[in-house]
Amino acid sequence: MAFFTALGALVPLDHFGHYFHWHFIYLSLSNLIIILLMIATFLAAILAPFPGRKSRKEHQ
Amino acid sequence: MSSKRFRPDVDAPEYHGRYSPYDIIKEGTIAIVLVGLLTIILAIVFGSPDERAITIKTWSNAAPVDFATTALSELNGTSGTAQYGAPYNTASTGQQLGPLQLSKWVGVRIPINTVKDFVISPLRAMPSQPALRDALTQWISASTSTQDAWVANYTKAADKLTFTNSVVTVPAANAGPVPIFINDLTQMARTGALDQALITESGYYTTDYTRPLLFLADGAYLESVATKQHLLGTQWGMMNETGSYPGQAWLWLYSFWYQIPPFNSSWGANADVLVWGLMMLLSALLLLVPFIPGLRSIPRRSRVYRLIWREHYRDQK
After folding, report:
1. pTM to 2 decimals?
2. Domain residues of chain B, as ranges?
3. Pick from B43-57, B131-145, B272-286: least confident
4. CB of A8 less than 8 A from some CB of B
5. pLDDT for res B31
6. CA-to-CA distance for B229 and A52, rounded, in angstroms?
7. Who contacts B4 (Cβ-Cβ below 8 Å, separation ≥6)?
């Protein structure tokens, strides 16, 4: 039993969490975090500089 | 020879700038390794939802009165499944997309007679029950009008239905074998035998859970559990997961329409097919962007590409 307990999650999320409720928008905090991370990833893909920019410039 | 006019968004101009080497294999390998590592780390830290499945046994032990009331609704034809229409029966028109009766077109592909499939057939599978065997014989040999009268008499008294000392009791008169059916079906459900009987109705080795799931959905217990766990359709439907685990957030647009009028009000009866139709329309628009004047100009006019390739445009200056 202890072996299976050790295999369990370090931070299990089985408990009910917090919910964000604004007019008809009603979603869990975890969903909201995922959505914000997706938006942040999208913005990073647009705004972050391409890797290897410095070495390319030095090469030129 | 006249040269053809250049059409932005349709014609591709010839590129005269410099080229840079790009190793897609290297980039793909890095992406797979990083996502793989992230998946393993997140699995170790957070695990995954591990809720026990709700069965008819769970339900009938937790809420025997709700189970017995639902069993009666299967017998008197007032349950959600009994009145659903296609693909289970012809009780209603089903979902309509304007004048198109799509459910009727599909027809009854999974025929379910709630009296026979949810009550009588499972009870007939019960071994060595003389009283039940006699009750079933009485039911089968009675006319349809007599059966209807028994069920109606039981239904009239059903608001006084109680579950005391592990027995379903209803003070109903002239209800024929119906009290035995409802009580025995409840006892059968509480042992787990009804789960098995409903699954094996369509064959001995099967993974078809249609019947037990429909029976469960007809009761109030499943909805009450879903309400407690924030899993109702009104709570952004497909985005939900048990506990605090994140759900399928990328399906937000599909579930979004269910939350606003007219999909959640005057169009509510046909919301499923209307939302599906709307999403098909939006998906078609997305697929056909290169062919739709105006819409296909948005990337060029919004100039987001200049932000992504700002280094290149800065060098050009």
Report:
1. 0.82
2. 56-226
3. B43-57
4. yes
5. 95
6. 48
7. none
Q: Is B206 helix (H, G, I), strand (E, B) or coil?
A: coil
Is residue B142 very low, low, confident or very high in pLDDT (cuts 50, 70, 90)?
A: very high
Radius of gyration over alpha carbons of chain B, in Å?
29
CB contact under 8 A, A16 and B243: yes
In one-letter notation, the amino acid at residue B176 is G
Structure tokens at B273: 């097919």
- Cα distances (Å, whole numbers) of residue B259 to A21, B95, B227, B253, B281: 13, 18, 16, 10, 19
Distance in angstroms (rounded) separating the CA atoms of residues B304 and A47: 10
Q: Which two tokens stand for residue B25?
A: 């294999």
Q: Which of residues 19-58 of A touch B (CB under 8 A)?
A: 19, 24-31, 33-35, 38, 46-47, 49-50, 53, 56
Task: Tell if the CB–CB gap between A27 and B242 is shorter than 8 Å.
Answer: no
Higher pLDDT, B232 or B168: B168
CB B123 within 8 A of CB B184: yes
Pairing mode, strands A19-22 and A25-28: antiparallel
3-state DSSP of B37-101: HHHHHHHHHHCCCCCCCCCHHHHHHHCHHHHHHHHHHHHHCCCCCCCCCCCCCCCCCCCCECCEC
Looking at residues B122-143, what average pLDDT do you find? 93
ipTM of the complex: 0.79
Output the six-digit token pair for B63: 């809420």
